[in-house]
Amino acid sequence: MNKNATDILKEAFETHQQRASVYGDNYKRFGKVFINIFPDSKLPEIKTVEDANRLQLFMQLLNKMTRYAENLTKGGHQDSARDMIVYAALLEEMTDEK
Q: What is the pTM of this model?
C-alpha cells in the first residue's frame, strides 16, 4: 500500500512522541557531552576516512550512552545497552593502535 505524505508525517510524529517519552531531550544535551569528553574540549582533527569512521562509531556509542543515562533510574534502556555492545565491537574492529 502506498502511503501519502500526510500518512507518513503522522507516523513520523507518532514515532517522535514515542521516542521522546524514552529519550527525553537527549538531542539537546548530546553536544555538551560530546565536546566535553575530548581533552581541552577540542574536537579531534579528522585526517583520514578511517578517522571519520572511528569518530562516527564513537559518536554512535556516546549517543547510546546518553540515551541510557536518560533512563538510568528508570531501570535503564535495553535497546541502548545492546547497541553499545555492537558499536563498541565495531569500534574495536576499526582500532589500529599505532
A: 0.83
The H-or-E segment that residue 34 falls in is helix 26-36
Report yes or no: 48 and 61 within 8 Å, Cβ to Cβ. no
| 97 SS3 class | coil
> 62: how many CB neighbours lie within 10 A of its CB?
16
User: pLDDT digit string (tens) for 18-71?
Assistant: 999 999 999 999 999 999 999 999 999 999 999 999 999 999 999 999 999 999
Q: How far is CA 87 from CA 4, 23, 34, 97, in A?
A: 35, 19, 16, 18
Give yes or no for a contact between 80 and 68, defined as CB atoms under 8 angstroms apart. Answer: yes
The total number of residues shown for the chain amounts to 98
